[in-house]
Design goal:
Layout (H helix, E strand, L loop, with lengths): L1 E6 L7 H17 L1 E6 L1 H8 L6 H15 L6 E5 L4 H13 L2 H5 L2 H9 L8 H4 L1 H10 L5 E4 L4 H17 L9 E4 L27 H9 L20 H9 L2 H12 L5 H25 L2 H31 L7
Parallel strand pairs: 1-2, 2-3, 4-5
The structure holds tryptophan (TRP) and iron/sulfur cluster.
Length: 329
């Protein structure tokens, strides 16, 4: 299978990204031809006012990917804005995409509601799924790993492909299907969605001590006031983290020990920190060993490959559109 997926470079990656996205990508690259890219134009659609340093954010993002186990020798890693063909196809797709499809997009409507602090009544934000469609179909991706919120975008992508084929009487794109990752979402340490802006996240490049300080401060089952009070792991976030990062034996020990009050919360959190450390330590080490130059080279190589594929595709697209049918002479 050909797989394409992107991430917006809006800040440091946390454990939620690792579990929800990266682990999945790392698995997929073993058996498939994967293209992973930094969606920096997409980042601009919601953050054009934020004065982000997209160049350095993109570099750091790729560094996190590679440190986490994305293998640049088997996957192609590139930067969206370096491949102008994405923009070229986006322009064309915009011409044929009915506004109604975009205005009805449930993800769009949700985000307008949720991001009241941002002025996102822009053409770019409305047409976000059109650019995303270009990202995907330029590579003939048949599978696209995404989160649930992105599902409507894949639906739009398929509709655009069908419309293009119909209008220009050709079959040059592949209709992409979504690949929803099965892992459940990891909540932040305060029980809300894990997010940089809520200050409740454990980042991939947090030190051992930072992780411990964050876990130490996290709320546990409020019923466990004293060490001798039995608790209910199901209502405790630390237990969720154990289920995500600890082995079965520890998870069982936590469950039993919590219910019978034979372990304390501090002890339980220490085990949790150890399990998280098992994941983060190798990432941290790999990260420290990667130079900016190395990352630049990975990107350069990936960009070249992406460029080659998309240039060919755009030739076909332009032929289908500009050299068609009625030979007037
Ligand atoms: N919209 C995606 C997200 O927010 C990022 C993205 C951009 C993407 N282009 C893509 C994902 C193409 C998959 C394929 O998560
Ligand atoms: Fe949570 Fe562990 Fe304390 Fe139980 S023992 S309440 S699971 S931290």
């Amino acid at each position: 299978m050909r797989i394409v997926s992107g991430m917006r470079p809006t800040g440091k990656l946390h454990l939620g990204h690792y579990l929800g996205v990266l682990k999945n990508w790392i698995e997929l690259q073993k058996e498939n031809e994967c293209f992973f890219f930094v969606a920096d134009w997409h980042a601009l659609s919601t953050s054009y006012e934020d004065k982000l340093n997209l160049k350095s954010l993109s570099l750091e993002l790729v560094k996190d990917w590679v440190a986490s186990g994305i293998d640049p020798n088997s996957s192609t890693i590139f930067i969206q804005s370096s491949i102008k063909e994405h923009a070229e196809l986006y322009v064309i797709l915009n011409m044929i995409t009915p506004l109604g499809w975009l205005e009805r997009n449930p993800t769009y409507k949700d985000q307008l509601q949720q991001m009241k602090n941002k002025e996102i009544h822009t053409a770019g934000f409305l047409t976000y799924p059109v650019l995303q469609t270009a990202d995907i179909i330029l590579y003939d991706a048949n599978r696209v790993p995404i989160g649930e919120d992105q599902r409507p975008h894949l639906e739009i992508a398929r509709e655009i492909v069908r419309r293009f084929h119909h209008l220009f009487e050709c079959e040059i794109f592949t209709e992409p299907k979504e690949l929803l990752s099965s892992t459940s979402r990891l909540l932040g340490l305060d029980g809300r969605k894990m997010s940089k802006s809520y200050n409740n996240a454990i980042f991939l490049n947090d030190s051992k001590d930072e992780v411990w300080q964050k876990l130490r401060g996290a709320k546990t089952d409020p019923q466990r006031v004293k060490r001798t009070d039995p608790g209910d792991p199901e209502v405790c976030l630390i237990y969720d983290y154990h289920k995500a990062f600890s082995n079965e034996e520890i998870v069982k020990k936590v469950e039993d020990g919590c219910k019978s009050a034979t372990i304390g919360c501090v002890e339980c959190k220490k085990w949790c920190a150890q399990s998280i450390e098992k994941v983060l330590e190798p990432i941290r080490e790999k990260r420290a060993s990667l130079s900016n130059e190395e990352i630049d080279n990975i990107i350069k190589k990936g960009n070249e490959k992406a460029k080659e594929i998309t240039a060919k595709k755009m030739e076909k697209v332009n032929r289908a559109i500009f050299e068609i049918k009625c030979d007037i002479g």
